């Protein structure tokens, strides 16, 4: 962020930003770029952060907002980028964002920090991402890998339903390739089907995969989990939702709980 840079997005009210591009990057997955009012403006985010995006409800009954995770870097000037998975025919804000055309405006509020990530805070970080749950994991990996002082060993297991559903693979593989071994990636699919060429992991994430690829429970390690509710339930237990309160982490149960992980070394996005 340069001295003359201004934070473009307010934490207290929705700031309208103009869509400058909307590109399909996978099955029902879009990369949407939003321009800041000035090319010198910045996002003002502390990693790992998210922002709220407004959208029209599908039934036309008004506007609602949902959280999304910027995948552009904190120091990117003039724009922010989102990766959004559309739920066609059922989604509300996801469909609103994915249908946006260059020139359209989207209301954005934030950024809000979910967990502060700084270089060498942990020795090892494991990541379990399901589908669009890749976005916070990518944000954290990019932030740590961009620091020349950082030595964190990061291992990601990126889960999708089938090999065709995997998106951003080129981007993720390129990050790993230039990380000097600091960032390792394993792809896992529920079903490889007739994809004989599939060389990755198959089936839902299990204890053997966690033991083999991710850090063991330790004070200087952290496992980050982001995916759909059934994935949280199986891997670490769901987040705790109470009316009128921000979502809480909830107890660590499931595969990670059985392996001795606790809230000190697991974070649910
Ligand atoms: C901290 C945080 C960060 C997030 N970051 C991102 C991000 O970077 N990119 C992104 O794409 N999403 C992200 N999400 C999810 C996002 O906030 C919305 O929940 C999602 O886009 C669906 O919102 P919606 O308004 O379209 O659908 P909703 O109105 O919430 O749901 C409508 C219907 O859509 C279907 N649906 C919604 N979600 C799912 C799901 N996960 N699996 C299957 N069906 C579903 C269901 O049928 C549901 O009844 C994040 C969530 C959190 C909590």
Automatic annotation (TrEMBL):
Domain FAD-binding FR-type intervals: 12-118
Cofactor(s) the record lists: FAD
Chain residues that bind FAD: 66-68, 83, 85, 93-94, 135
Record-listed E.C. numbers: 1.6.2.2
Enzyme class, UniProt record, top EC level: oxidoreductase
The entry's keywords: FAD, Flavoprotein, Oxidoreductase, Signal
SUPFAM superfamilies registered for this protein in UniProt: Ferredoxin reductase-like, C-terminal NADP-linked domain (SSF52343), Riboflavin synthase domain-like (SSF63380)
A molecular-function term among this protein's GO annotations: cytochrome-b5 reductase activity, acting on NADH
Protein name: cytochrome-b5 reductase
Pfam families, per the entry: FAD_binding_6 (PF00970), NAD_binding_1 (PF00175)
PANTHER family, per database record: NADH-CYTOCHROME B5 REDUCTASE (PTHR19370), NADH-CYTOCHROME B5 REDUCTASE 2 (PTHR19370:SF171)
Keyword Flavoprotein applies: yes
């Amino acid at each position: 962020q340069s001295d003359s840079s201004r934070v473009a997005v307010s934490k207290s009210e929705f700031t309208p930003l103009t869509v400058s591009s909307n590109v399909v990057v996978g099955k029902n997955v879009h990369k949407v770029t939003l321009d800041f009012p000035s090319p010198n403006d910045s996002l003002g985010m502390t990693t790992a952060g998210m922002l709220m995006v407004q959208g029209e409800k599908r039934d036309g009954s008004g506007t609602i907002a949902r959280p999304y995770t910027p995948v552009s870097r904190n120091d990117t000037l003039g724009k922010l980028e989102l990766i959004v998975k559309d739920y066609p025919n059922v989604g509300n804000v996801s469909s609103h964002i994915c249908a946006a055309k260059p020139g359209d405006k989207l209301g954005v509020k934030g950024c809000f920090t979910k967990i502060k990530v700084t270089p060498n805070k942990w020795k090892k970080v494991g990541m379990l991402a399901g589908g669009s749950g890749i976005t916070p994991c990518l944000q954290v990996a990019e932030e740590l890998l961009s620091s020349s002082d950082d030595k964190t060993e990061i291992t990601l297991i990126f889960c999708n339903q089938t090999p065709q559903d995997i998106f951003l693979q080129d981007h993720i593989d390129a990050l790993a390739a230039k990380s000097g071994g600091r960032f390792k990636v394993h792809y896992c699919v529920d079903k490889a089907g007739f994809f004989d060429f599939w060389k990755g992991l198959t089936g839902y994430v299990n204890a053997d995969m966690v033991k083999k690829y991710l850090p063991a429970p330790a004070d200087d390690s952290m496992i980050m989990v982001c995916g759909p509710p059934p994935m949280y339930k199986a891997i670490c237990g769901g987040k705790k939702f109470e009316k009128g309160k921000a979502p809480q982490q909830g107890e660590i149960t499931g595969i990670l709980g059985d392996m001795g992980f606790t809230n000190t070394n697991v974070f649910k996005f």
